[in-house]
Amino acid sequence: MAVGARASQSRWRYRVGQVIAAARARNTNVDVEAVLRDLPPGLGELWLEMAPRDMVHSLKVFRRVAGDELLVRQAALLHDVGKARAPLGTIGRSLVVLAERFGATVALDAVPVLGGRCRRYRRHPEIGAEMLRQAGADPVLVEIVAEHQSPAPRHPQTARLQAVDERE
After folding, report:
1. How far apart are CA 26 and CA 41, in angstroms?
2. 0.85 cut: is pTM over it?
3. DSSP per residue, 39-85
4. pLDDT in tens, 97-111
5. How far is CA 32 from CA 11, 45, 46, 167, in A?
6. Are 60 and 90 in contact (CB under 8 A)?
7. Distance of alpha carbon 141 from its chain centroid, rounded?
8. Which residue pairs from 93-96 have beta carbons closer than 8 angstroms and sit at least 24 positions apart in sequence?
9. Is 87 helix (H, G, I), strand (E, B) or coil?
10. Which of 17, 115, 128, 166 has its CA 20 to 30 A from that of 101?
11. 9 CB contacts (<8 Å, ≥6 apart)?
């Protein structure tokens, strides 16, 4: 099997694992207390708006960057907060991933109701950044969240977040 095919197969296994983990995702009060200690007023409330699966993911990223600077820890918790404005279940999220993989985002975007949510889901970094800006977050945190899926981030904190986020 070619190296590219193995990498593609590995990526698909990873995505299937994400779907299974999302279906099992739950949160605990202990986790909420740990989060609220690192987030200033206003930002904790935004984190609480996230879907349980996104909270669990953010906590995994947060735990992996526990020794990093405060902005990286905050970004770990809030990098996907924009997904709260694009409510999609596991199937909808899977459709977005498949559409992106096969270049079918235009077709998916045309589906009534679902299309708008899918567009917002793909734009979650900029939506999340705007949510943080409106809540009075540190401007660097806003920029890190906005560029957390960028192939060429400007901030070294974003690169650190990306390295951990890709594994969780």
Report:
1. 24
2. no
3. S-TTHHHHHHTS-HHHHHHHHHHHHHTTTS-HHHHHHHHHTTGGGGG
4. 999 999 999 999 999
5. 31, 11, 12, 22
6. no
7. 14
8. 93/19, 93/22, 93/121, 94/15, 94/19, 96/121, 96/122
9. coil
10. 128
11. 1
Token pair belonging to 137: 């977050």
Rounded to the nearest integer, the mean pLDDT of the chain is 86
**Whose CA is closest to 43, among 85, 66, 75, 69?**
75
Tokens, residue 119: 């567009």
Token pair 């299937």 is at which residue?
16
Distances (CA, A) of 98 to 47, 104, 122: 27, 8, 12
Query: Which one-letter DSSP state was computed for residue 154?
Result: S
Q: Residue 58: which of 78, 34, 84, 42 has the closest Cα?
A: 78
